[in-house]
Amino acid sequence: MTLQITGTMLLQGIVSGLLSGGVYAMIALGMALIFGVMRVINVAHGTLLMLGGYTTYWLFSFYGLNPFFSLIIQWSSASGTETDCATAPTASVATTMPANNAGTACRICL
Question: How buried is 22 (Cβ within 10 angstroms: 0-12 exposed, 13-18 middle, 19+ buried)?
Answer without folding.
Answer: exposed
